[in-house]
UniProtKB/TrEMBL annotation:
Its main location: membrane. GO terms for cellular component: plasma membrane. The keyword Cytoplasm does not apply. Gene3D superfamilies: MetI-like. It is a multi-pass membrane protein. GO terms for biological process: transmembrane transport. Belongs to the binding-protein-dependent transport system permease family. This is Binding-protein-dependent transport system inner membrane protein. SUPFAM superfamilies: MetI-like (SSF161098).
Length: 310
């Protein structure tokens, strides 16, 4: 068999160089992969294991099955925190989606100062939840904030003391959190709106379709992926809510604004009940997975359909 010409021999080098580059990239990612497996996944598994023990101040190696979970759901404070989380979650997600969509539609009208308005609406999201909580705590304080201002202006009977009322305090947390997160929803939905073909509005206008019907029946269906992303981000934020509650109300009055994350932290560091705190954190982990799994499945199915269409 005839040998290959000498000028053809170097052709194999790019393949070897590509393989070396791929191996180098994988080696560079190895420390991060080990960190995820050993630190993150390891601590998750450790927490689940501790939740099946009778650990108090220090971890124990005994096994008590689901005893901590039974005790958890017999604890009134935990049940109150779940009730508060449900109220907060429904109102917070709904408020952010509605306000974010309205802000996105407003900015999408090519208003003057669009860049400034985008910055102003998105700026609260750049703040920490602690700062947001403190700001709204001052604003809602009956002696310093909105109520005191209204009375100083002459409305002597004005009352806005929700933050000190057990039946209303959770709604103040919703107001503060929605004020902060609506800007993120606005930014995501605005990007989706900019992807809608403007010719559709021209055709709708020729047909005499009012603007509200155009957004309801034409635009909203096209924004379904953006709304799905917003919903998942907001829902995960609901499960993790902690800073805003601690800085605004401290979980009070009493336990009126208690949330699961605060319950976990209090049992872990203040009440020295590691087993119960681990059981509660495992329940919240399963909640997050239950929220993410349908979204990830939907994204996977959508990607497969799009790939099949091509």
């Amino acid at each position: 068999m005839a040998a290959l010409p000498l000028d053809r021999a170097p052709d194999a080098r790019p393949g070897r160089r590509g393989r070396r580059t791929a191996w180098a990239a994988q080696a560079a990612l190895l420390p991060m992969a080990l960190t995820v497996l050993l630190v993150y996944l390891g601590t998750v598994l450790w927490s689940i294991r501790i939740s099946t023990t009778s650990s108090k101040i220090f971890p124990k190696s005994d096994f008590v099955g689901l005893e901590q979970y039974v005790r958890l759901f017999e604890t009134e404070r935990w049940l109150v925190s779940l009730h508060n989380l449900a109220i907060f979650g429904v109102l917070f997600v709904a408020a952010c989606l509605v306000l974010g969509f309205l802000l996105a539609v407003f900015i999408d009208q090519k208003v003057k100062g669009e860049d400034l308005l985008r910055t102003v609406f998105l700026y609260p999201y750049a703040m920490s939840f602690v700062a947001t909580g403190l700001i709204w705590q001052w604003m809602l304080n009956p002696e310093l904030g909105i109520q005191a201002t209204l009375r100083a202006w002459g409305w002597s009977e004005a009352s806005f003391d929700w933050i000190v009322r057990q039946d209303r305090v959770i709604y103040t947390v919703v107001i503060a959190a929605a004020w902060q997160a609506s800007g993120l929803v606005m930014a995501i939905l605005l990007a989706g709106l900019r992807g809608v073909d403007p010719e559709q509005w021209s055709a709708a206008r020729l047909e005499g379709i009012p603007r509200w019907r155009y957004y309801l029946h034409i635009v909203l269906p096209q924004l379904a992926p953006a709304f799905g992303t917003c919903f998942v981000l907001l829902a995960v934020g609901v499960v993790k809510v902690f800073d805003a509650v601690v800085s605004m109300t401290g979980g009070g009055p009493g336990t009126a604004s208690e949330v699961p994350a605060k319950f976990i932290m209090d049992n872990l560091f203040t009440r020295a009940n590691v087993g119960l705190a681990s059981a509660a954190s495992t329940v919240m982990l399963l909640t997050v997975l239950a929220l993410l799994a349908p979204w990830m499945y939907w994204r996977h199915q959508t990607s497969r359909r799009n790939a099949g269409g091509h």
